[in-house]
Amino acid sequence: MISFKLIEKEEINSIIPFLHILNNKIDEGTLKNRLEEMIQQGYECVGAYDEDKLIGISGLWIFTRYYVGKFIEPDDVVMLPEYRNSGIGQMLINWIYEYGKSKGCIASELNCYITNAAGQRFWMNQGYKIIGFHFQKSLE
After folding, report:
1. Does the N terminus or the C terminus of the chain have fewer Cβ atoms within 10 A?
2. Is the model's pTM score more than 0.90?
């Protein structure tokens, strides 16, 4: 049976293998440190479970911005390969929308890498529109 629930802070390191699916260039120690700091900044993560097995994740941020109001941002959504294209991703996204509504969110926004064509298709099929570019500059 598939279920969804917020991952407790004490269990947050269970998402590290999923983060490595997205980006294996960041070492585990750095990820643990960053996750700890992110939690202090309001980061949450929802897990998709098949019985007791964690099969997918999505980070969650809730922000308010002047141009949109209060919104939820799914972040680093990833499903184990053997569970993809099964409808579970859609169920996870629906859970996120309902969670956002329960927190007073009126919209959802997210980032998707320009190299992730499958992700872009998925989000556009969800009704998202591209409204801008995400820029980044290193300060090191």
Report:
1. C
2. yes
